[in-house]
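Task card 7
Instruction: Convert sequence to structure tokens.
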Amino acid sequence: MKKLTLAILFVGFFVTPLVGQSPQKIARINKKVVGKWWSADRKNYIEFFANGVCLEGALSPQGKWNTQEGKLGAWQVGESFYCLGGALTLIGPNTLTRDYGMGGEPERYYRGLQNIPQTPTNLSLTAAQRILNQQINMPTVNNTLFTCHACYDPSDKQDNDKAPLVSTYSTPFIQFMIAHGYVRTGADQQYFTAKAKRSKYYGGDGPLFGFRFANFGNPRILTDKIVDLNHVPIVYDFVPTELTKGFFGKVQKVRSVASFSYENEAWRLSAIHK
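Output:
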């Protein structure tokens, strides 16, 4: 399948160096990055040594550090480099990013623990409402049926039903989608049909690809003070698309709980819980 091949090649770009990389270029990059770089949560690090060796460490849930040794490399074009996987880019004297090419915002690493930005402990009600307004309608499992990255190609709308669903929803809703010809069930997997892929509701939005079946709007925080970032009561409009109005009916007011988190030096709406 053509899109699977393209996806594999794309991921390979981030884990395999191009032929012709310059030793002088690697030495120049290495000189800039020698030292230990930490993720903001202090659970991952990348350490570069003067001899070109690099070491990656990850803290397991059991509190044990797992490490792997690699060698610093660089691509022929551009300033990105790598240790064991992902494209690393120096964006400041003490900050670099890692990007695996799968969408989303690259993770940041900081040179030395002293350079990790201090995580704010308080989120104001005004800021939380602003974030909610900006991010409430991002694709999530609550408003989108997802397909896998390797099975998505925005130019391929005619392909037959070969895009497997990788998210689940209620059985009655899936049956509704099957009845309308947008989903089929194979021997052991559910797939989007060509009809779904030709629909205006099927597409990619950031790192997530799939079929949007509803939109969220008009969010409002239902508290005068944020005490727990993981439990902020909210209400919002659940707005079915023209297609899914046949299943969900009219616009519904939904009371829910939102979670906020501080990631990559910015506050984010991390989840909406049903």
